[in-house]
Design goal:
single chain, mainly alpha, MetI-like fold, about 0% strand
Length: about 270
């Protein structure tokens, strides 16, 4: 009976692994095919002759380096702002006793429930009057706004589990609130901070709706725009689109695999201590 249960678990895990890995494998095969093979009847077949030229077309024709640089810049600035702001707010909510603490917490929880699409028109009008429409700030500011609530939720749940005795002893030694936050709370909170970094990175890296709404300058477009370079009125280069999707996913996969252990630790720590 035990061996049967173990075999069933292995079977379920194998199915889960296959369903997760196969789409990526299929996309790699897709990127190495010609249009004729992609549009042919045998949809799941391997490429007869790998078309490495698709990657060359994706790299040059898709303005890969330019769009990659814009995505890196926007994502980096957003990440730094989200980490700093959410860490300070989470510390204030979880460690201080003040009248508006519950109200502030409720505001951030409500912020997690507002769909991004519902804010496009108001933001468009606001940014136009602020003269920041079609600039990087028209992406960075809403990205920070929509990423901060979930970051506060994760960090505050972790910080509530930090023993108060650590701060009390530091206060007795003459440390200020800012010193305690910088030298004690932040180093302890590294695991959930890494979780926030990864979740925010993936969300912003793949975001297209706001980028397409607020950005029209070719020099400011981010990586998701590159796909449409290969779509014209009379022709679509499907292989190059697949290659560009692979190139665009490589930074995300690299970051995730490098920091995957920290992500798991951060999730577990936040769940247990929160």
């Amino acid at each position: 009976m035990a061996s049967f249960k173990k075999g069933l678990v292995y079977l379920l895990l194998s199915i889960l692994v296959i369903t997760q890995i196969y789409p990526l494998f299929w996309l790699v095969m897709y990127s190495l095919k010609t249009n004729e093979e992609i549009l042919g009847s045998n949809f799941f077949s391997l490429p007869s002759s790998p078309q490495w030229a698709n990657y060359k077309a994706a790299y040059k024709g898709g303005h890969y380096l330019q769009y990659l640089g814009n995505s890196v810049l926007v994502t980096t600035v957003t990440l730094l702002c989200v980490i700093v702001l959410s860490a300070m707010v989470a510390y204030a909510i979880s460690r201080f006793k003040w009248k508006l603490g519950g109200v502030v917490t409720l505001v951030f929880l409500l912020g997690m429930m507002i769909p991004m699409q519902a804010t496009l028109l108001p933001l468009m009008v606001m940014f136009k009057h602020m003269h920041i429409l079609n600039t990087r700030w028209s992406l960075i500011l809403p990205y920070i706004t929509f990423s901060t609530p979930i970051a506060v939720f994760i960090l505050s749940g972790f910080m509530r589990g930090i023993p108060a005795e650590i701060e009390e002893s530091a206060f007795m030694d003459g440390a200020s609130v800012y010193r305690i936050f910088r030298s004690i709370i932040l180093p302890i909170s590294v695991p959930p901070i890494m979780t926030v970094c990864i979740l925010t990175f993936i969300t912003i890296w793949n975001e297209y709706i706001m980028a397409a709404t607020f950005i029209s300058k070719e020099s400011l477009k981010t990586l998701p725009f590159g796909v449409y370079t290969f779509v014209s009125q009379y022709n679509v280069n499907y292989g190059a689109i697949g290659a560009f999707l692979i190139l665009g996913a490589l930074p995300v996969l690299l970051v995730y695999f490098v920091l995957s252990e920290r992500i798991t630790k951060g999730m577990v720590a936040g769940a247990v201590k929160g």
